[in-house]
Design brief:
- The protein has 508 residues and is an alpha/beta fold.
- The protein has 19 helices and eleven strands.
- It folds into two domains: 238 residues, Rossmann fold, CATH 3.40.50.1820; 216 residues, no CATH class.
- The protein is 43% helix and 12% strand.
- Helix 9 packs across helix 10 and helix 11 runs parallel beside helix 17.
- This is Alpha/beta hydrolase.
- GO terms for molecular function: hydrolase activity.
- Keywords: Hydrolase, Signal.
Length: 508
């Protein structure tokens, strides 16, 4: 036992001890007082409880065709920033084709991109088996198409001018100028769109919009079909709301661990598809690439490289330059159904005619919004801010796809738009985790040019999903009339029975 102290020394000690204890208590109290209180949960009731007003699609972008097909449209109000639900809002355009038979649920869809409008998806799926049992729901994601406000960086005229002029620019001599153009583009996006929307067009915000749409549709849980970038939307929704998923089919899946626009992976995928096309074309004696597939790369480059310096001017005064020719080629490589059109275009090119290829390039460019595409990628990809790193990526891309090597190689490469993007990233590639998620279905094609097969394997593994493998060369395979894919997909969507483990098939 410690004996009590006597006298003034003891008093001083007691006072000091009391002061120390009091100080400690004060510090503890202050610490507790200074600890930030958890932020209040934003009240989103007014969004989740809104009632939809379905009506004619007239007045929506592409609405005339939808209305003629018996498809209805509506708009869903969402906050631009989910952390500020009382702030500015966006209006998401959605469409609906009612189930033609006994209804199972509403099937929300997305065609990919990022930047591809989805309002017409019910029209695209109208003759598929899902239209019999599901209300097929399309949507133009925030910033895009018939949704408002829209991401806007360039006018159509400015885009065409940039494509034509910059497509002829020699990057060896004008790296600084190209970077300046990229920075100007980023600044234009900020000025015309506003930083608030530009910082909230990423996958996470769209996934939250999907949940509001689910609630507005009166669905307790989400039934979803997404292709290409739509698989990134699906996996993000699964991470955020695993307990609100009924069923998901993710077709042509994006690898969750890589940049969506990884140049080296994409280059290798399209070279593989080009090789498959060249081998198929070589079976015909009049193939514009010749009858020896091993020489196809060189023959193709001999056709398109002169367009860098000497575009072909068409009768309507449009120009087929190198960028347009390769764009048309890449567009055709997405699916074998487009290979005959590519053969026709390349055959015309051998005769100095560029109209067919220019038409293919224009159709491809009209499909998506380049502005939204760039905005999403800049928010979610690992940004390259070093010219040497950019050059390394460029060199590896050329090696992976020799058919598309323009020969303009340098020790440095210009930095892309994302290096100058005015808002910071909101997400990065990662392995998704979703505890309590029901079994999903992933459909991956062995020769997919845009989203290589390995990425589908990775996504299925990460989500614990069943994997359907389709052996072929095309971008996606679900709901395209391929029985060995569509039958198990439909069975899963209707009664939640997953496909057999390791299911692998090919077109008869």
């Amino acid at each position: 036992m410690v004996k009590p102290r006597k006298g003034t020394a003891a008093i001083r000690h007691a006072v000091l001890l009391a002061a120390v204890i009091a100080a400690g208590m004060l510090v503890t109290a202050c610490d507790k007082a200074e600890e930030p209180a958890p932020p209040p949960v934003p009240n989103l009731d007014r969004y989740y409880q809104q009632k939809l007003s379905w009506g004619s699609c007239e007045g929506y972008q592409g609405g005339g065709e939808l209305t003629a097909a018996g498809i209805e449209c509506a708009r869903v109000t969402v906050p631009i920033d989910y952390g500020k639900p009382d702030g500015d809002t966006a209006r998401i355009a959605i469409s609906r084709l009612r189930a033609q038979g006994t209804r199972v649920a509403a099937l929300l869809t997305n065609p990919g991109g990022p930047g591809v409008p989805g309002l017409t998806m019910p029209l695209a799926l109208a003759k598929t088996p899902v239209a019999e049992r599901f209300d097929v729901i399309g949507m133009d994601v925030r910033g895009l198409g018939a949704s408002t406000p829209r991401v806007s960086c360039r006018t159509a005229t400015e885009y065409e001018t940039d494509r034509f002029v910059l497509g002829r620019t020699d990057p060896l001599a004008e790296i600084d100028q190209i970077e300046q153009d990229n920075e100007d583009y980023a600044n234009s996006c900020a000025q015309r769109t506003g930083l608030a929307l530009l910082g909230h067009v990423g996958t996470g915000d769209v996934a939250r919009d999907m949940d509001v749409i689910r609630a507005a549709l009166g669905e307790q849980k989400l039934t979803y079909f997404g292709g290409s970038y739509g698989t990134r939307l699906g996996s993000t929704y699964a991470e955020l709301f695993p307990d609100r998923v009924r069923a998901m089919v993710l077709d042509a899946p994006v690898d969750p661990t890589t940049n969506m626009g990884d140049e080296v992976i994409t280059a290798a995928g399209f070279q593989q598809a080009f090789d498959a096309y060249a081998a198929d074309c070589a079976k015909a004696p009049d193939c514009p690439l010749g009858t020896d597939p091993k020489k196809a790369n060189d023959v193709y480059r001999a056709l398109v490289l002169p367009l860098i310096e000497h575009p072909i001017i068409t009768p309507d005064r449009r120009g087929l330059d190198y960028n347009a020719a390769t764009t048309a080629t890449i567009s055709a490589l997405y699916h074998p159904d487009s290979w005959p059109a590519l053969t026709k275009g390349l055959t015309e090119l051998t005769k100095g005619n560029g109209e067919a290829l220019l038409g293919e390039a224009g159709a491809y460019q009209e499909v998506s919004s380049d502005d939204v595409h760039r905005a999403v990628l800049c928010l979610e990809e690992v940004r390259v801010t070093d010219r040497a790193v950019a050059a390394d990526i460029d060199h590896r891309s050329r090696a992976a796809a020799p058919a598309f090597d323009d020969g303009l190689i340098n020790a440095e490469a210009p930095l892309g738009t994302c290096a100058f993007w005015p808002v910071p990233p909101t997400a990065q590639p990662h392995v998704p985790t979703a505890v309590g998620l029901p079994e999903l279905v992933v459909v991956a094609v062995t020769g997919d040019p845009a989203t290589p097969y390995a990425g589908g394997v990775n996504l299925a593994k990460a989500l614990g999903a069943a994997l359907i493998t389709y052996e072929g060369t095309q971008h996606g395979a679900a709901l395209e009339g391929i029985a060995c894919v569509d039958e198990p997909v439909l069975k899963y969507l209707i009664d939640l029975t997953p496909p057999a483990e390791g299911l692998r098939c090919s077109k008869p």
